[in-house]
Specification:
The chain is of the alpha/beta class. It has a single domain, classed as Collagenase (Catalytic Domain) (3-Layer(aba) Sandwich), CATH 3.40.390. Helix content is 55%, strand content 11%. It has helices spanning 2-35, 40-49, 58-74, 87-98, 156-160, 170-180, 198-217, 232-245, 247-253, 255-265, 269-277, 281-293; strands spanning 76-79, 114-118, 122-129, 135-142, 144-146, 152-155. The chain has a 4-stranded mixed β-sheet. Strands 3-4 form a two-stranded antiparallel sheet. Helix 2 (40-49) packs across helix 4 (87-98), helix 3 packs across helix 4 and helix 8 crosses helix 9 (247-253). The chain starts with a helix and ends with a helix. Bound molecules: zinc ion. Zinc ion (ZN) binds next to helix 6 and helix 8. Zinc ion is lined by residues 173, 177, 234, 237.
């Protein structure tokens, strides 16, 4: 009896501690959101420029703004090669970094801190191993890269380039690598949610990847960026760009891949696109009228 009471008492204490920690965490988040709020003018200007954010509900936009504020507080965004950051630059990068985790939670971005911003594409020197196992020094020009447990690096010129409709997005690409690596290996197979089918994921992405590799190998025009055929990891990063920035194109060519990404990211960008097209005509007329009066 005494033992049972002791166990119950420990359980009560344990859950009380968890409850206290959750209250403390929520209070801390509320403080950050209030104390380090993004200026409204900058927020509106940034999201107004990013066409793939249109069609989001008011709730989604509010959540995205909260995540972006937390990102700018938790991460260390720093310019290099003389590139000077301002609030618009930081918010533009942060909001795109947070879009993929809108349905996953901010914790998915834990384990690293720095975002390094180059003014334009940057050169790196790496050792490449050929098929015979011989190491060759190689110079590459990159728009971005994500280090395992290290920084995300991006070129501002590539971030700022209007990606509307093209399916290209360097920030989403690098964040997809980060999410991919959450289970310890960056191999195009991120930790799936409970209820998602591993065989269905593997079949959908595996078939699509192989199809793309074959097209590129036979010098046929690929339906998405040929860089996706480099490796399964790059395939996952590139299709994540298309999922958010050109969902129609991804769905048209790889419908089952789109469905798997929708389950993984817990978002439906294609639905957002349809909502934009379904905007009532009356509302558009009202906006035009308002502009004319001013
Ligand atoms: Zn990549």
């Amino acid at each position: 009896m005494r033992h049972t009471e002791t166990v119950a008492s420990i359980k009560h204490w344990f859950f009380a501690q968890i409850g206290f920690m959750n209250i403390f965490k929520r209070a801390r988040v509320r403080y950050i959101l209030h104390r380090y709020a993004i200026s409204h003018a900058v927020w509106l200007a940034v999201i107004g420029k990013l066409s793939f954010l249109q069609g989001m509900s008011a709730v989604e936009k509010a959540r995205l703004r909260e995540l972006t504020t937390l990102f700018l507080y938790e991460k260390h965004v720093v310019g290099t090669q003389g590139f000077e950051l301002d609030e618009t630059v930081c918010v533009t990068i942060a909001v795109q970094a947070c879009l993929p985790v809108l349905g996953l939670g901010f914790n998915c971005l834990a384990g690293w801190r720095d975002v390094i911003v180059y003014p334009a594409a940057f050169r790196v020197h790496r050792d490449a191993v050929d098929e015979a196992g011989v190491v060759h020094p190689e110079e590459q020009v990159l728009a971005g890269e994500a280090w395992s447990r290290g920084p995300v690096v991006v070129s501002w010129a590539d971030v700022a380039r209007d990606p509307s409709g093209s399916g290209s997005n360097v920030v989403i690409h690098e964040i997809a690598h980060k999410l991919d690596g959450l289970n310890g290996r960056t191999n195009g197979f991120p930790p799936l949610h409970v209820g998602m089918s591993v065989p269905q994921w593997t079949a959908a992405l595996g078939e699509a990847y192989q199809q793309l590799v074959n097209r590129v190998g036979h010098h046929h025009q690929p339906c998405i960026n040929a860089y996706a055929a480099t490796s399964p990891a790059e395939f996952f990063a590139v299709i994540s760009e298309y999922f958010f920035c050109a969902p129609e194109l991804l769905h048209q060519h790889f419908a089952e891949v789109y469905r798997q990404l929708r389950l993984y990211y817990r978002q439906d960008p294609l639905l957002r696109l349809h909502q934009i097209h379904a905007t009532p005509v009356e509302t558009l007329h009202c906006n035009v009228l308002a502009k004319t009066i001013r």
